[in-house]
Amino acid sequence: YQRKYAYQEVSRTLCQPQTKAEVETQHFYVDVSTLSLNTSYQLRVTHVENFVLRTNERFSFNATAAQPQYFKYEFPQGVDSVIVKVTSAMAFPCSVISIQDILCPVYDLDNNVAFIGMYQTMTKKAAITVQKKDFPSNSFYVVVVVKTEDEVCGGALPYYPLSKNASPEEPVDQHNRQKMLEVMVSPTITSEAYVSSVLFCLGIFLSFYVLTLLIACWESCRQQKRKGLLAAMDSPSLDTGRARSTPDSFLGHAPYDSYGYGSFGNGSSGSAEGVTDSMGSAEVPYGYAGQEQFKRRTPSAPMRPLSIAMGERLLENVTGRPRLDSLSSVEEDDYDTLADINYDKNVIRTKQYLCVADLARKDKRVLRKKYQIYFWNIATIAVFYALPVIQLVITYQTVVNVTGNQDICYYNFLCAHPLGNLSAFNNILSNLGYVLLGLLFLLIILQREINYNRALLRNDAHALECGIPKHFGLFYAMGTALMMEGLLSACYHVCPNYTNFQFDTSFMYMIAGLCMLKLYQKRHPDINASAYSAYACLALVIFFSVVGVVFGKGNTAFWIVFSVIHIVATLLLSTQLYYMGRWKLDSGIPRRILHVLYTDCVRQCSGPMYVDRMVLLVMGNIINWSLAAYGLIVRPNDFASYLLAIGICNLLLYFAFYIIMKLRSGERIKLIPLLCIVGTSVVWGFALFFFFQGLSTWQKTPAESREHNRDCILLDFFDDHDIWHFLSSIAMFGSFLVLLTLDDDLDCVQRDKIYVF
């Protein structure tokens, strides 16, 4: 800062040349220079006590900017790696800790301490892991330098006023700028601990593969027993008519569930022939409580109340029924032009209660290709996104290793175990769960799809005409996104800092968006967003994330623009959900809004057509407007996390909306999805507890971030953030299973009796 400082006492520790033995006499010269006039001084030479540090012993000392200190440490026999911990009760003055090889001269001044070795700035804590292989002499110096100013550690840059007659060149008197510190050198973990930690990590996540295999075997055995029982019931020795009329619930098994969770069976389920109502007359009707339901009129069925028979929502006897397309209330064969059928769909979407069959009229092959594009697009995005990220973080790590500047990366230095060129291997290893569990989810989806396709080839009526339409492309995209989240999180933890945090969050945005799309697709298979428009919107989100990270810190204009976009997007999405896609965004929207307000609010006071949907959408708007107001008022520094919080809140809100509407429609949640919901919620709770421990933060300076560092808590290898990685990967996997199995209770319900919401 072009300043000169006045000191009353200056001291330097002399460096002993390696070529000289301690018993030899050495001669040296001391040159003294000063900016002051007619200054007297005293020269004192003393022996440095405790110059060699001992393992696991604490040593306290004082240092100032003009009195740096350094000590020597020699590796004991059998110790390959040690961690040097330096602590202080006082945050300021700011200091620098450096590890240097045994060479002369020792760089122990503020203006040259960064020239060689490894170094960190420090307020209250510093920790540097040192490996014997990096020091040929099997020893090193621990250098402590107190800086002349505190700005690099997050302190203020003070203003020193000059006296009236003082010259601008007059040295600044910093008074007693002294810091008391304590240093301790301890051995780190052995190579056996690395092996045991890797095996522990693999064991946790491979156990999920074993559990899935056991469930598959159990389900396969159950299917074999069921087929044997059905064969026995169909034998000539039994009353055939009675066997065919036996409710399937008597067998304790749904007619078609060969593609259930974890099913790796042969996919052969019983024929739909002779299947009757599996719920019986005691089941709660599938309808909105207190409201009269009417069955839609088809060319072959007159209009009659739905609530007459409780089992009407289930498959009656559909062996001779035509394919799915004819289950809708409108027969496509009755129309001559595409315009006619599109007009009729507009009419359908204005009905009080839509059914899934109304929105599942497109050709299955077309929809299959449409949703497969989600997988191939995200796979392509992953390759083009991951390659430059990997290259960049390798460059970051190389810069850290070459320059020795450990302020570049924000590790938890008290629990950072190096391996090869990686500074924190444990933070990378703990991301393995995302990859392994994402792969397991892809395998489960693959087996489900295989079994479903086999059922279609057998013309299984349940697969053709019952349940939520099965489209697996979004599930494949979700599994791929989970694997990529693990890879990119590992890349971020190679060198975590402010500039590359979006690597860790980009695919979190993807996962949140894909989960919302999957929830919407369940009841709206024909009108769901295309892969191109969906990924374009997610790209826009990531663009805002980057802009917010680079320009959003304290920028009022940015926060105003973002908050307005957030509110407008919320309103547009609410309109899309309320009208189920049947509205147009054009110049006539203001006129239509005024017309609706006049007819529904002024001329006559009428309530909304979809009350439940309106109530939940109003709640969602309140939450999103509150988040927008919070961002505009508080303007958090961590914009990427704020944006992710918006996505997660909306996902949870939509999931709650889906569950509430599902239960309001008289549907139920089966045991497996219920257990997944409860277990996943518990795991998410523990995961968030470890996430908010905050072992480091790039919102502060590197020195201030190290004040949050903590020791390892698991196997002396993993810290709190690693536990977050373990638990959050399990929780995400469980959340995906919830989406996969949530509507399994509808697998025997005709699609023209499943409500859309």
Automatic annotation (TrEMBL):
The keyword Metal-binding does not apply. Coiled coil: none annotated. Keywords: Glycoprotein, Membrane, Signal, Transmembrane, Transmembrane helix. Its main location: membrane. GO terms for molecular function: double-stranded RNA binding; RNA transmembrane transporter activity. It is found in: Membrane. The keyword Glycoprotein applies. It comes from the Eukaryota. GO terms for cellular component: lysosome; plasma membrane. InterPro entries: SID1_TM_fam. The chain crosses the membrane at residues 194-218, 374-394, 428-446, 532-551, 557-579, 614-633, 639-660, 672-692, 723-742. It is a multi-pass membrane protein. Pfam families: SID-1_RNA_chan. Belongs to the SID1 family. PANTHER family: SID1 TRANSMEMBRANE FAMILY MEMBER 2, SID1 TRANSMEMBRANE FAMILY MEMEBER. This is SIDT2 protein.
